[in-house]
Fold:
Amino acid sequence: MLDELTNESKFLLSSMYKEYLQRRKDGLDRPKARNFNSEIAIHDEIMPEWSQPDVHDSVSELKNNGLIEAIPGGNVFSFITLSPKAIAQLEITFKDRIDSVLDYAAKIKNVIPFV
Structure:
């Protein structure tokens, strides 16, 4: 699954998953922990170093691969949630360990030339 994504989208997905794990650790229920609101919120809270069009493009890629659920409208994705498919795959990949996710994200970030 991850092999089919660009490095940018792998980085965004791993960053979202890290946030999901932290939210669960903090006691949020699954639906709330999976909710990332809109691509604007993702840009502002998770990927402020990226341009808004880059966030939009990666969100679109993740949606097209079934890793997030989102509703498009007015050139902005809203109601963004991590899909159960993504969480299941990421649980296998990272064993629900935030440190493993952080290591992976750091490695991916290093191969993205513009970040």
